[in-house]
Design goal:
The chain contains 7 helices and no strands. The chain has 114 residues and is mainly alpha-helical.
């Protein structure tokens, strides 16, 4: 998935009232997406978390501990901790970029097609 397409999906998610279900219903299985159903749902959830600026959900979707997440993205652990506890918010661009990295790590469907 290209970054431009990812950003367009995030914008559509916001326009649809920040509803993952509505976004999934709108996009269905576009040809640009090579994931199976579980991969698509994970991608949509990750996009939602990124658009909402939810570091806590991004950490959960990554499957990493907060420490490993901070190391992976070169972030101070204390900042990640504050963002996850919602004491502070990350810069708006950061969850979007992290979400894109996490989505690009979702494995494609075994046969390359849905």
């Amino acid at each position: 998935m290209t970054y431009d397409y990812y950003k367009a999906l995030i914008e559509e998610y916001i326009e649809l009232g920040r509803s993952e279900e509505r976004l999934l219903g709108e996009i269905g299985f576009p040809p640009e997406i090579k994931w199976d159903g579980d991969g698509l749902i994970k991608a949509i959830s990750t996009m939602g978390a990124a658009a909402d600026g939810s570091t806590k959900r991004l950490v959960e979707f990554s499957g990493l501990s907060m420490t490993s997440f901070a190391r992976k993205f070169g972030l101070p652990y204390r900042s990640v901790q504050n963002w996850c506890s919602e004491e502070r918010r990350p810069p708006d661009y950061l969850p979007i970029l992290i979400g894109y990295v996490l989505i690009s790590e979702i494995p494609e469907a075994e046969n390359g097609n849905i």
